[in-house]
Target: N-acetyl-gamma-glutamyl-phosphate reductase
Amino acid sequence: MKKVGIIGGAGYTAGELIRILLHHKKVEINFVYSTSNAGNAFSCIHQDLVGETNQKFTDKINADVDVVFLCLGHGNSKQFLEKHQFSKNTKIIDLSNDFRLEKNNVFQGAKFVYGLPELNKEAIKSAQYIANPGCFATTIELALLPLAKNNVLQNDIHINAVTGATGAGTSLSKTTHFTWRDNNFSYYKPFTHQHLDEINQSLLQLQSSFSSELNFMPNRGDFSRGIFATAYTKFDGSIEDAQLMYKKFYKDAAFTFVSDNELHLKQVVNTNKCLVHLHMHKDKLLINSITDNLLKGASGQAVHNMNLMFGFDEKEGLELKATYF
Model:
């Protein structure tokens, strides 16, 4: 059994990690580090874990665990690693945005591999450190990568994506209170969202000539979890051509599937799936992509990366069922 450590145990992503790893057949949770909750049971914070485990949060770190997940706020992972040393054999999977971009993906001489399995599976298998992608980035990249692979992204791309309230994390703000969010809808960070840089980087990895504009409008939905993204761009081909590209690109993907039917969020919430659907209107290709922002967009993908790094079955611990009704 591989020993796992989690840094930053009180947030949504840590809660999802704990839930998954408690039922993972190849690993055991060695510690979950949380200075603000040290000594408290996991179930005091993640209350659905009552009866699942008696483990408690700690303010001590075991530097010799096999893998550690960093569930810290953006900008805090690098600071944490500068202050705390793990063994040379410990694998690190960071869920923040600290190491996702090539310009800052090297830490103390070691490179963080961008952990999107559909893009970098072979590199992930041999990696020591992983930068787990962002939730919007995952959903949008999976909508566009097959087009980049075929060098057909030649025009501006328009993207509209809605995320649930958990995308904002557990800290309260004006736009996360129930009275504001309920029966409400709004956009934020129009055209400037921080995930645009990693989306561009991934597209350039497959299509080096890519220079088109990504016009991204992120939205807040009045639901708890999930991302519903639509993107459209000009496409010189038929819907059959597009479907062939996508199904070929994802034929060996463990969790990304091309659906011939229109999509809705209940198909993926509480799963590690990404579903993609294509629609053609005149010379425009519309791509719909949906994920659970906490699983495929964060913790589920992190466990998928861990499975690849250790040579486990890709789906180990991740055969989760949607809450459809």
Observations:
- The longest helix spans residues 135-149.
